[in-house]
Amino acid sequence: MSNNNKSGPYSDPNNTPPMGEATALGFQHVLAMFASNVTPSVIVAGGLGAGFKFAGPEMVYLIQMAMLFAGVATLFQTVGFGPVGSRLPIMQGTSFAFVGVLSLTAAGIVKNGGSSEQAMSVVLTACIIGGIIHFLLGAVIKEIRWLFPPLVTGLVILAIGLYLIPVAIKYAAGGAAKFQMEADSFGSLMHWSVAGTVVIVALLCKFFGRGLISNAAVLIGIIAGYILAYVQGMVNFASVGKASWFSGLQPIPYGFEFSLGAVIAVTLVCIVSAIETVGDTSATTKAGAGRDASDEEISGATYADGLGSAVAGVFGGLPNTSFSQNVGIVGMTGIMSRHVVTIGAIVLVVCGLIPKIGAIIASMPLPVLGGGVIVMFGMVVAAGLNVLREVELSRRNMVIIAISLAIGLGFNLVPTAVQYLPETLYILATSAVAPTALVAVILNLVLPEED
């Protein structure tokens, strides 16, 4: 344990500020992660094409589940039960890390003649199984951390961001699916003016704002872009009027369909997500209390991570992970109280049970979302580079970086290069994340260290 413990009434996770201050801080945690939390569901669903009603009830439901189970998973972390939960102020949310493999899997099924519902069935089944495996990692996470040094985790995060950037540009230009990109309005000045507004307002708020304004910069940028899109007649509120004020949950909403390739791909990303959560857990204790995370806290965080993902998958939500931006709030405020984040979790649960909120988000024009994710996905790349900054750029490590990215992103950019692989291997090879991680781990184990 580190000896530079921070003293103060709120460096203890079990202490809580006055209710008024705690509530404001809880909302601050929600604002900091809200846009990033709902975006993966929108992207995965958007990749299903015209057969999936982009702003209809299906999209609204997925957005609801993203909010609801981010809150539930956060409660697993902050409140906990038995060995589950770190009992630390760790905010959970839908993970970008899974967007690549899930989008590719869903789009591949639709392309080969499957229905959108079948694609979602395969995707969610893989999420449930992957979440269970992720949960089981909690028992051994301490023993396998050595397989994922900063060289490997940094490469994986970098690959995730580089894979997602083209998606951001497509959304900003006004489309994602092929039929949308072939429209005459794709890349129009109207679309780019909206996306540009989101980026500019987000940057102004981030670097010239303070407190809540700075922490919610991307969300404020999206609101500004939403208003401009409405003024230009790009927003349709028909689905909002039809949405109810309350709805229940639907277990296994699209059925249960097993695909080995999808399960393996999701499981590999679950391992990476578990390592990311270990890092966020350690960063949280360092930022808020000036100490190292205990083995129990790390195991508990991993258990909660996996359980949250598995439960979300049962009801139509995508996998969860810890959110690094909320670690930054702990460091900025110095308030380590887990009960503050519990308040934020309750806010998310309430939002997830109100379809009208999901319908408002689903009515968001693509360029608005595109402007937001240009910032978010660019930050994913920057986060990967920040991790790699810890790595000595020796010839050995540079070779590992070069080959891992070349193979991981190369197969994704030119999927026909491996089109004759069996379906399971094809999904893995073209997922960007899985081959990058696999090649990096193998090369790091077999290449000798330099003198």
Describe the structure concisely.
The model has no long low-confidence stretch (mean pLDDT 80). With 451 residues, this protein is an all-alpha fold.
Report what the structure shows.
The longest helix is centred in the middle third of the chain and has 30 residues. The chain is 68% helix and 1% strand. It has 451 residues and is mainly alpha-helical. It is built from 20 helices and two strands. The chain has one domain. Strands 1-2 form a two-stranded antiparallel ribbon. The mean pLDDT is 80.
Q: How does the overall form come out from the CA principal axes?
A: globular
What is the total number of structural domains?
A: 1
Count of DSSP H/I helices: 20
| Distance from first to last alpha carbon | 31 Å
Percent in strands = under 5%
Structural class call reads mainly alpha
Q: If strands are numbered along the chain, what order do they take across the biggest sheet?
A: 1-2
- Mean pLDDT, to the nearest integer, reads 80
Q: What ranges have pLDDT less than 50 throughout 5 or more consecutive residues?
A: none
Number of strand elements: 2
Order of helices and strands: HHEHHHHHHHHHHHEHHHHHHH
Query: What's the Cα radius of gyration?
Result: 21 Å
The major beta sheet can be summarized as:
2 strands, antiparallel
Query: What's the helical proportion of residues?
Result: 55-70%
